[in-house]
Design goal:
The chain is an alpha+beta fold. β1 and β2 form a beta hairpin. The termini are far apart.
Length: 86
């Protein structure tokens, strides 16, 4: 009986450790995504080196060059545009 209790306690401790690791990983992912979003808001146009400006056009969010050299979309925005024009 003592061996069984020890095994269950070890199993519970393992479950708690796994849950903490999952929580840490989720927080780490959230932090990394926030840093990527922050970096994207300070991304420069490859042509003129001006910072891109966030813009929403026809319900689609994008980053555009203020000098008109182009627009950059994420995958979701591109799918929305493709779906709209079908």
């Amino acid at each position: 009986m003592a061996g069984d209790s020890k095994d269950r306690l070890g199993s519970k401790l393992h479950d708690v450790e796994a849950a903490r690791e999952d929580q840490w990983a989720r927080q780490r992912d959230t932090d990394l995504l926030e840093k990527m979003r922050e970096r994207m808001s300070h991304t420069a146009c490859p042509h003129c080196k001006q910072f891109l400006v966030a813009k929403t056009e026809a319900g689609v969010s994008m980053h555009v060059c203020p000098a008109g050299h182009g627009a950059w979309l994420d995958a979701a925005a591109l799918k929305a545009l493709h779906k709209e024009h079908k």
